[in-house]
Amino acid sequence: xxxxxxxxxxxxxxxxxxxxxxxxxxxxxPFGRAITYVRVSVTDRCDFRCAYCMSEDMNxxxxxxxxxxxxxxxxxxxxxxxxxRKLRITGGEPLVRRNIMxxxxxLSRHLHSAALDEVTVTTNGSQLSRYATELADxxxxxxxxxxxxxxxxxxxQITRWGDFDKVMAGIDAAQRAGLAIKINTVALKDFNENExxxxxxxxxxxxxxxxxxxxxPLGEIEGERADQYLPLSQVRARxxxxxxxxxxxxxxxxxxxxxxxxxxxxRLGFITPLTHNFCESCNRxxxxxxxxxxxCLGQEDAADLRAPLRASxxxxxxDAAITRAIARKPKGHDFIIDRAxxxxxxxxxxxxxxx
Length: 355
Ligand code: SAM
Ligand code: SF4
Prior knowledge:
Layout: H1 3-8, E1 37-41, H2 69-81, E2 86-90, H3 100-112, E3 118-123, H4 128-137, E4 142-146, H5 152-159, H6 164-176, E5 180-187, H7 196-205, E6 209-214, H8 225-228, H9 232-242, E7 245-247, E8 257-261, E9 267-271, E10 284-287, E11 292-294, E12 302-304, H10 306-311, H11 316-326, H12 350-353
Parallel strand pairs: 1-2, 1-10, 2-3, 3-4, 4-5, 5-6, 6-9
Antiparallel strand pairs: 7-8, 8-9, 10-11, 11-12
This protein binds S-adenosylmethionine and iron/sulfur cluster.
């Protein structure tokens, strides 16, 4: 069955099923950056409660506030029409959203038409045993799996609710399905800093890239950010004591900078929002599961796309709202972690904006 017929199952109208060819009017921000990468959060819910990401008793959004899967498809298609080449589906945990495979199935038409280069997913891995094959069938080639430790007890401690064996089985299933995996590890002081080498050797031994991420000040959590923060410059220096790191030009369109580790032959990435300002080459925006467009992960300014989506079955209002929003994309973010100012730099959690 082709993608178009299948989307009909969740009620899209013909106008929204059009397959864009060349961008009608590309999205260029005031600093000349082309916006070609959209991260879409499909839910704020999650089956884990990672200590740096969520508080244990999170209040989630009422279902009616969420964009439907059809609305998410329309929104993605509107961005693709304006030159988006890469979509990353994230959350919350994207794979816990009910019927989420129908979104991937629908979006695969843009891969078939070559309007889109890539659909990727960021996941905690808990549902991969169930979905890896389907993801591959719908054209997903690469996924990011978040994993902060290889110790099952510590895994339970940091995720609060996560099941380590399930995630390992998910990674196995994804590799069997042919998906390339990048492991994302948040560097947490006094938690996993003694495990970085083990994680690197494990990931590279299985043919997976690994990227370390600095903890970002997003949302209120129990505990203090400054206690978790570990600058990646230190992590890199420690690796350099033991390994030969060769600068790499490899880029995935995201903010990670990569090196190749000579001894393992694998790729190692660093995402350093706090120690290195990567904003100058920013090509991306984020949309939340309620259709709020954030032009910058580190700023509060946002545009509501849900109202124009719901106001009309044509996409004219939506297109105009996207154009107005991109014209406000700021030059860079305002992250700082300091002990004196204890409030997070940005009030929303990562699980709202998506990672
Ligand atoms: N649930 C999925 C997962 O864990 O991969 C997707 C959403 S999660 C919010 C995306 C990524 O953000 C994960 O790699 C997670 O470790 C990271 N993350 C969450 N909160 C963070 C924070 N405060 N600072 C840095 N990274 C964070
Ligand atoms: Fe869930 Fe991902 Fe946040 Fe962990 S990092 S609580 S898995 S959304």
